[in-house]
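Researcher: Please predict.
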Amino acid sequence: MPSPFPGMNPYLEQNDTWEDVHQNLMTRAQEALSAQVGPNYLVKVEVRLYLHELDDEERRFMGRADVGIAAMDDERSGGAVATARAPMRLVLPAAEVGRYSSLEIRDRRDRRLVTAIELLSPANKNNKLDRAAYLSKRQGYWASLTNFVEIDLRRGGERPSPPELPSCDYYVMVSRIQDRPLLDFWPIQLRDRLPRVPVPLADPDPDVFLDLQELLHRTYDAAGYAKYVYRETPQPPLVPADAEWAKQFLPANGA
């Protein structure tokens, strides 16, 4: 069954769910675009690993302890037997490892990057190092002969800038080579249907399209998110008016 929400499903924004949602959305977007672009283009998923150390606030929020502290506790309880005593013991910092996928549309003949499609992750919006790396990559697109599509389907966090964005829950931004510095922008509110977004190719080829609402429905159904996401709360929490509105779409049994 499709997602019960008319637009973005805020229950998919939970921290322990979003990475899976992100990967699945990118895979289904690849399938949708590959069916449209024709024989002169390739649509590829680019996967990058990111690793960053968690600060105290992130560690508390995510419920993660330092690796070294856990190992020491095991030894005190008799869970480990040391064969030799080292003069000192150090603690490994808590770190988060994740995967981050984006899409590339390339010219099949020379592999030239024609269009880049980025779906923002929490790392892009919260962690300083990952955010800086993403901003640099973003600026590189704008300085090149590459079309660029940026999609944000998570509330909260610090959005990339410039440009300064209008107030909205989610958004899509399309930067065409020939239109820069002008950008096409779709502000999206929680209660709005997700848009059908044009994805530019190389001139003179016409745009192809991503129906984000349809992609979300297909992802939601295929991954079986209804089995567990409604047992938790959206992250960040919905404002009271939106939380009350959302109740009408929740499964009766909460699963």
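Model: Helices lie at 15-34, 56-62, 67-76, 122-126, 128-142, 212-223, 240-246.
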